[in-house]
């Protein structure tokens, strides 16, 4: 009929008058203030829940941009109980009761939800078609979301993207190979380290894989942070140590003739150990944040970095020792079967390289009895400030010819200090402007159905469902009825709770619905008593035997239930003196205390629709009972006090994180008040799960930063035995942390647990940019100015390589499907690298030249050079000095500590004669910032 009327509107007048013509309703008036269904007492939906972007006027909605519908889905437990024991087999005749269990019920609900979202996502309204009916473009207008949507999507995107990982590792490998390549023509030279670079990247890769395996064995689950971030972050940080080892490897091989790998580890091992330990500690500090996913991320990162450290200190030196054999046999890199031409082998006959550095745990003074030589090489007076030639158009050439001269200027130091002060002020300003928050849509991949739904909902709707959970089983629900009512009313008074007429919360709850049901039963029972159907004195049903069981045909269904409930209390059944005297609900609204749990069983089984509407989710559920069972006894069994039950609410006006946090504080205060009064409870819902962490984020962040800062200071002070130097490092780390936090505020990146992790780890990662400079500063002789120059000259290249390799390691994060990975890890970590380079290679050298710690070696004559060696003899226009004297070692070795002491060493000292005979006396021996100290007797 309806279809015929649609096709023939002109024929309506044949059987309808104009006043009877169908008229479209005025939806603006109908939905204004909300909608009500046919069961107006139950089916009520506030306007904020269903209409978004509304324009109102004259008590009606003139226009709206979004319409939302919410479907309540039964819990697996409710669905399982609904069809358990074949009670409702007529509803599902094909259901196999023998196979029906809780797991099957869960699968049924998940399947329904997946089909629901799939059908709506592919709805025809989401596609625009051309004239031929083919899909021309996609225009999303219907956005579905179910509880399975986010879980399924995260499960899909939490898998490792091996293509992205492969590309990222390939880029890192290409950079490492290029940085260590030395070639002559199209052939690699013998001193090239391409093979070592390749082996180093593989070592870090396999160590990371082993670390992930151990993390999995520990039960740390993979999540989006693990699969999207950890492989690249640990790779970028792990290869820093490789670059540092290879940078010093060239110098050690040229300087030391025996035990080269041992000396390399003495040179670099302590620096690698110190920076790696601080990185590990920084991620361990991140586990202090009470966010399970971020705790897992930080724990996995610390495990992987630990494996990287062990591999780089054990496996990689073994690989270097193999390469050293190739290098000594002058075989070309990679192509080990090819021997390099003798003409291409550099002549070290006029180069002094003493690459052995002793270790002293305390400051020593060099005396005349044991002459020692620190950083020695040959040059004339005109070359005091120039070291060995460097290749043009290289990073080292830029350092020597431009950066160091620029850094030595007084005006440059003032400029750097002023710029860094401006950075500090900007950081403090940014911290003041920083806001809390992380949108739900940000943590989901772009162009997915859940992300589209959440973005649309965040734009048009500001409501969230919540539950007030009563935490039993120690609650006496029968005696605490009014306390529970007051608890609900107190939460309902919040301005964030959606209310209906009369100020009541919009959602009904189980105690109120059960009370209404019992009152209706009491009314029917009173009518039956008044009609003489029940004897008040004896409590017997008129016309029934005293021992009748089951359903009485003399009474209606409602009276049957009311009659049984009145006689059932606790574990007893007795009608004597109760019919007509005991009320199910008294005038004050109190449900009869003695029979309360019996009434719960009856309501749960007889009025199941209202139970599902109430969303009470009783656990454990009441026992099964049915008044329709003719063979069942009249007694209604009592329910067990609930360990869990909940009261539903809808919250509105939650537009941003500060407002949501305010709501959480308000609701939490009410919950804590009643918990202190003996009603255990807590709030639950998306808003609380996702945003409650912000209540304690500042304190947790401050605690974690203090812990990692103290740990870094303690570790550095313990390793180098110099609190002064550790204090200088901490100054830079604090500045870096403030500047990074300020960058978040200035860049509009909100502070949340994800960004808090990057701030915490910044303290540890920042050591990469500072520790090497300070250690080099401590191992140099001379004034603060000369030692600053020597330190920068020594570590500038490996620090830049490390920074670029870290950036290259995380660059693949920019292609992640997750917006939060790009924003909170790639952008923030890139900013951290830039801040670290500026502070570590610009501000730190300036501070060291002004307030740096004293050097650990003081020549007795007060100069900045050690005493010259004994007189040398000329032989065939070349000077050969060979030292084979061995001294007993008194102290253990500390890499990167430039203190002097007796040392077992065997070195070759070759001095270049003066270039110009008119330049004065013979060759001079002065401090060389690239060599290392040695204690030796020089013999000719």
Automatic annotation (TrEMBL):
This is SSD domain-containing protein. The keyword Amino-acid biosynthesis does not apply. GO terms for biological process: molting cycle, collagen and cuticulin-based cuticle; negative regulation of smoothened signaling pathway. Pfam families: Sterol-sensing. PROSITE patterns: SSD. Signal peptide: none annotated. GO terms for cellular component: plasma membrane. It comes from Toxocara canis (Canine roundworm). The chain crosses the membrane at residues 160-181, 193-217, 229-249, 270-291, 303-322, 414-431, 701-721, 728-749, 755-783, 795-815, 821-844. Its main location: membrane.
């Amino acid at each position: 009929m309806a279809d015929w009327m649609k096709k023939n509107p002109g024929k309506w007048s044949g059987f309808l008058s104009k006043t009877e013509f169908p008229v479209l309703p005025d939806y603006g008036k109908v939905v204004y203030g909300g909608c009500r269904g046919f069961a107006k007492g139950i089916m009520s939906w506030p306007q904020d829940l269903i209409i978004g972007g509304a324009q109102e006027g004259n008590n009606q909605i003139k226009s709206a941009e979004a319409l939302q519908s919410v479907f309540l889905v039964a819990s697996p437990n409710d669905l399982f109980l609904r069809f358990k024991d074949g009670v409702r087999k007529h509803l599902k005749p094909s259901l196999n009761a023998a196979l029906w269990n809780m797991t099957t019920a869960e699968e049924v609900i998940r399947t329904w939800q997946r089909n629901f979202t799939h059908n709506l996502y592919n709805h025809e309204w989401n596609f625009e078609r051309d004239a031929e009916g083919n899909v021309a473009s996609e225009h999303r207008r219907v956005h579905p979301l179910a509880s399975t949507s986010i879980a399924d999507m995260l499960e899909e995107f939490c898998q490792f993207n091996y293509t992205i990982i492969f590309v990222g590792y390939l880029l890192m490998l290409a950079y490492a190979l290029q940085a260590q390549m030395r070639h002559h023509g199209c052939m690699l030279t013998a001193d090239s380290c391409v093979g070592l670079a390749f082996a180093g990247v593989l070592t870090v890769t396999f160590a990371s894989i082993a670390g992930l395996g151990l993390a999995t064995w520990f039960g740390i689950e993979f999540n989006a942070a693990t699969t999207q971030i950890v492989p690249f972050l640990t790779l970028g940080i792990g290869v820093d140590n490789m670059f540092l080892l290879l940078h010093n490897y060239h110098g050690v091989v040229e300087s030391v003739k025996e035990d080269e790998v041992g000396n390399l580890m003495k040179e670099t091992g302590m620096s690698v150990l110190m920076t790696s330990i601080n990185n590990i500690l920084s991620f361990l500090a991140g586990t202090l944040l009470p966010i399970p996913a971020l705790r897992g991320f930080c724990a996995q990162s610390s495990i992987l970095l630990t494996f990287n450290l062990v591999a780089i200190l054990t496996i990689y030196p073994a690989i270097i020792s193999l390469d050293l054999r190739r290098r000594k046999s002058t075989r070309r890199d990679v192509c080990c079967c090819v021997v390099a031409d003798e003409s291409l082998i550099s002549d070290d006959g006029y180069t002094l390289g003493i690459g052995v550095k002793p270790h002293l745990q305390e400051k020593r003074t060099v005396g005349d009895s044991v002459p020692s030589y620190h950083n020695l090489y040959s040059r004339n007076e005109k070359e005091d400030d120039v070291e060995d030639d460097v290749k043009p158009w290289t990073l080292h050439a830029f350092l020597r010819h431009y950066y160091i001269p620029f850094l030595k200027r007084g005006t440059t130091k003032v400029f750097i200090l002023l710029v860094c002060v401006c950075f500090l002020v900007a950081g403090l300003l940014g911290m003041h402007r920083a806001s809390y928050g992380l949108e739900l849509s940000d943590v989901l991949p772009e162009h997915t159905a859940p992300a589209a739904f959440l973005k649309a909902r965040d734009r048009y709707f500001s409501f969230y469902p919540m539950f007030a959970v009563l935490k039993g089983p120690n609650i006496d629900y029968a005696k605490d009825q009014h306390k529970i009512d007051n608890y609900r009313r107190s939460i309902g008074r919040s301005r964030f709770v959606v209310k209906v007429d009369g100020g009541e919360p919009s959602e009904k709850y189980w105690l109120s619905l059960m009370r209404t049901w019992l009152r209706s039963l009491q009314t029917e029972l009173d009518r039956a008593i008044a009609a003489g159907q029940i004897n008040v004195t004896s409590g017997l049903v008129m016309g029934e035997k005293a021992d009748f069981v089951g359903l009485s045909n003399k009474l209606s269904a409602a009276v049957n239930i009311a009659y049984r409930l009145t006689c059932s209390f606790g574990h007893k059944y007795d009608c004597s003196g109760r019919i007509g005297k005991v009320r199910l609900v008294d005038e004050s609204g109190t449900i009869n205390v003695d029979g309360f749990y019996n009434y719960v069983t009856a309501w749960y089984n007889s009025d199941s629709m209202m139970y599902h509407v109430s969303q009470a989710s009783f656990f454990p559920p009441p026992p099964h009972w049915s008044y329709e069972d003719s063979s069942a006894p009249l007694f209604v069994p009592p329910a067990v006090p609930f360990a869990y039950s909940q009261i539903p609410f809808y919250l509105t006006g939650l537009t941003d994180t500060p407002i949501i946090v305010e709501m959480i504080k308000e609701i939490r205060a009410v919950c804590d008040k009643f918990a202190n009064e003996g009603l255990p409870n807590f709030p639950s819902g998306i808003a609380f799960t996702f945003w409650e962490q912000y209540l304690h984020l500042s304190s947790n962040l401050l605690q974690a930063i203090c812990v990692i800062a103290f740990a870094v200071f303690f570790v550095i002070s313990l390793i180098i035995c110099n609190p002064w130097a550790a204090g200088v490092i901490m100054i830079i780390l604090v500045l870096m942390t403030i500047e990074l936090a300020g960058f978040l505020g200035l860049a509009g990146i909100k502070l949340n647990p994800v960004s808090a992790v990057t701030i915490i780890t910044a303290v540890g990662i920042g050591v990469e940019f500072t520790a090497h400079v300070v250690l080099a500063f401590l191992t140099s002789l001379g004034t603060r100015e000369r030692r600053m120059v020597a330190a920068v000259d020594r570590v500038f290249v490996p620090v830049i390589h490390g920074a670029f390799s870290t950036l290259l390691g995380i660059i693949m994060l920019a292609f992640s499907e997750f917006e939060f990975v790009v924003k909170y890890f790639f952008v923030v970590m890139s900013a951290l690298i830039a801040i670290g380079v500026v502070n570590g290679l610009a501000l730190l050298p300036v501070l060291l030249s002004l307030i740096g710690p004293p050097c650990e070696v003081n020549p007795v004559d007060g100069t900045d050079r050690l005493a010259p060696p004994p007189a040398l003899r000329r032989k065939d226009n070349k000077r050969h000095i060979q030292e084979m004297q061995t001294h007993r070692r008194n102290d253990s070795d500390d890499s990167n500590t430039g203190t002097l002491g007796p040392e077992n060493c065997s070195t070759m000292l070759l001095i270049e004669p003066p270039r110009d005979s008119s330049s004065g006396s013979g060759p001079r021996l002065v401090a060389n910032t690239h060599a290392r100290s040695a204690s030796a007797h020089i013999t000719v």
